[in-house]
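Reviewer 2 asked us to include a model.

Predict the structure of this chain.
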Amino acid sequence: MTATLAPVRTSAPEATPRSAAVARPAAPAYPSFASYVRARQPVLLRTARSLTSNPCDAEDLLQTALAKTYVAWDRIEDHRALDGYVRRALLNTRTSQWRKRKVDEFVCDELPEHRETPAGDPAEQQALHDAMWRAITKLPARQRAMVVLRYYEDLSEAQTAQVLGVSIGTVKSAVSRALGKLREDPELRHTA
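Predicted model (structure tokens):
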């Protein structure tokens, strides 16, 4: 038995012409929309971030484009072109956002000058602040809690009611009574 060996090439292989197609691996077909999103979300998010300056806006933009893709999922025949479809949806959505943007600029003959309000005396401001806290501490505990939640924590009436476990009407009436007591406080009248 004799083995035959293939001839050894000593010269460089012939260059392939530029027009010859380079074999690329086929893009995977995605069985479901969820599998596509899991596989491609980081790449698509980078694309969205390149279209916006805010990362949160980029996430919103991607979600909108993915929602449009989900609606069209059954109509998309070639799943190898999904990235292109989503990128086009990203770009179209961003363009629509630009067009819908409301411009708050108004033409006027004179430029409006910013009027600076004179800053009050810091000692007077501190005295008013201290008097307000003393007056608030005189309120009953429930009214005090509602006033603090409404005006210092800036919660709505519904949020205050939820935190305290009472109805919205209770919050409204208690805060009204508390504000009446604060208006009648002699120390606050004197300071104001």
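Residues 1-13, 19-25 have pLDDT under 50 and may be disordered. The chain has eight helices and no strands. We have added this to the supplementary material.
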